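Sequence, structure tokens reproduced for absentees:
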Amino acid sequence: MKTTFLTGLIAVALASLSGAAISGSAMAEGIKRGGTITVGRPDEPLTLDPFIPSDNGSIYAIAQICEPLISADADGTGLVPGLAESWTKSDDGLTYTFTLREGLKFSDGSPVTAEDVKFSLNKVMDPAASYGFAFEPVATVDVVDARTVKMVLKQPYTPILSALSLFSSSVVKKAAYEAGAEAFGAKPVCTGPFMVGSHERGSQLVLLPNPHYWATGEDGKPLPYADKVVLRYMPDSNSRVLGLKNGDIDAALALPLNQAASVKATEGVSLEVSPSYRLDYVYLNNTRKPLDDKRIRLALNYATNHAALMKAVYFGYGEQPNSFMPKVNYWSPDVKAIPYDLDKAAALVKEAGYDGTPIQLMVDTGNAASRQTATILQASWKKIGLNVEIVEFDNGTAFGMTEKGEYQAYVSYITSDINDSDELATLQGDGTGATRGFFSNYNNPEVNKLLAEARTEGDAAKRAALYAKVQDIVYNDGYSVPLNFLPYVNGYSDDLKNWKNITVGWWWLKSMWLDK
């Protein structure tokens, strides 16, 4: 057996943690426990059931409540032990054996067992589940004893450890979930640092400390530091800025970029610009006319004025994409970005025999940046002869319509939940999965074959070449209209300590405290 506890990125992560421990006593002296951290968000949870969602409003909240066997590190770029304190991998790469931390308890005080782990992994592995595709190579999950679980693969699967760090791989209490999935989705029984206090739809989610949480802070006492966290639903971006400036909220997410400089100049407030696994793009339904024609989809790309968007919408934050997915570990800089060329775009529209079918471009109500983006796109796309209408829906409705395929084009974004390209490359590029190419209905057999090969390839350079080829094909198939590799741009009070938006999208609220 090969012991793989703390391999690669995990070893690096622990090395950084050990370095941090040197100054831990100094940090501990400044920690203040208690208080309420209030975060203004543009989206709200649709469910807290980790096996259902694919929307970030739900995902980022679940990450505070539930935990998987393996966790993203403090930056989101690496992996560290989560509920599993160690694991081993067989010499043939087909068997992984995980050992749970001793004394783990759920938020209701009951013990975490290997049976709970098996149940949870079987739920996420269901091919019909949102993230079932990430576990297709898994053959079985078996209980060895109360603290040990064995996973057997059908063939070697390089991204398996990263897949196990997914929010959807979280361990839930089997008995609580089986008692009623809908009730569980409202108040999950998990192992994370927080549990649900209350949830007012359309308003806020209140999180309270899990009294049975296993991890301790720099002061040697159980995490989290705060007595309460309020995730406030504030879809209007201007309201988030105002709330931050007047002290109603401690952190404002996804700031309107035209106000970033103003936030930075505000006394007592800091501006965060941090790396992200995020891509802003226009979702395209590849089976809805006229977008079922690749020439029309490519015309939209050629007629997208990235320079105008960067100036008017993004205010210089980010860079023009050359991919259908964010810059995760196997992103290739060698794929050429589609240039702004109205003549080429118009020729493609003419060649496609466009008949005037309207293209409804959907945006979230209250999202000023999305509305401005849509307006710029509409003006440019009309120049090449396309009939474009802008329609608005609240975020939950818009994403729900997208999930059902009841849309043509949607100005939105996507983020990677893990540090491996496989998740989004498969989620978006593989049309055979449960989300149908992430609701695009894109399906290219060549891409499906390349992705299957990349998952079993152990050589990093060969994997990189495979993902680069996928990137080139899907991007130039007009899968979507990529807009910007956007960093996270947030504002937070100087009283909020340890604030950080990690690359995979969420924030470790358990490690934050208020210095007031």
Summary: Residues 1-23 have pLDDT under 50 and may be disordered.
